[in-house]
Amino acid sequence: MIKLRLKRYGKKREASYRIVAMNSRDRRDGRPLEELGFYNPRTDEVRLEAEAINRRLEQGAQPTDTVRRILEKANILQQRVRA
């Protein structure tokens, strides 16, 4: 199953995350199928590729709880429900 989840990178205690599409059985920091965005929890900076995310969701990818909250905050999931 393909999941939209966070991939950690950055220095110790200064983590940032990439939002990626990965096989659910792959390890957290393994090679992703596609990078879909960026999230920095320290500054609440979020950059998302909405078209690529919507394409993955249409193909059946399931977001994790944290990624779902990020997408809801950015109004990407609401746009998808209306369409």
Describe this structure as you would to a colleague.
The chain is α+β, with helices and mostly antiparallel strands and 83 residues long. It has one domain: Ribosomal protein S16 (S16 Ribosomal Protein, Chain: A, 2-Layer Sandwich). 30% of the residues lie in helices and 40% in strands. A five-stranded mixed sheet has the order 4-3-2-1-5.
Keywords:
3 helices; alpha+beta; 83 residues; 30% helix; five-stranded mixed sheet; S16 Ribosomal Protein, Chain: A
Secondary-structure blueprint:
Layout: E1 2-11, E2 14-23, E3 34-40, E4 45-48, H1 50-58, E5 62-63, H2 65-73, H3 76-82
Parallel strand pairs: 1-5
Antiparallel strand pairs: 1-2, 2-3, 3-4
Q: Kindly identify the CATH topology.
A: S16 Ribosomal Protein, Chain: A
Helix content: 25-40%
Query: Roughly what fraction of the amino acids lie in strands?
Result: 35-45%
CATH homologous superfamily designation: Ribosomal protein S16
The CATH class: Alpha Beta
Q: Outline the biggest β-sheet.
A: 5 strands, mixed
Mean pLDDT: 90
Strand order of the largest sheet: 4-3-2-1-5
Order of helices and strands: EEEEHEHH
Characterize this entry briefly:
The chain has 83 residues and is an alpha+beta fold. It is built from three helices and five strands.
